[in-house]
Amino acid sequence: MKALVSFSRIFVGVLFIISGLIKLNDPIGFSFKLEEYFSAAVLNLTFLEPYALIISILVVVFEVLLGIFLLIGYKPKFTVWSLLLMIIFFTFLTFYSAYFNKVTDCGCFGDAIKLTPWESFSKDIVLLFFILILFAGVRYIKPVFSTFQTTVLALLGFIGCLGFGYHVLMHLPTVDFRPYKVGANLWENMIVPDDAPKADIDYMWKFNVNGKEEVITTKGSYPTVEGDFISVDTEVIDPGYEAPIHDFSIERDGQDYTEDILHDDHVVLLIAYNLEKSEKLGLQAIKNVADKATENGYRVIGLTASGEDIQNILKEEYHFKFDFYFSDETALKTIVRSNPGVLILNQGTVTQKVHWNDVDDLNLIKVN
Question: Which sequence ranges are marked TM in the entry (predicted)?
Answer without folding.
Answer: 7-24, 51-73, 80-100, 120-138, 150-169
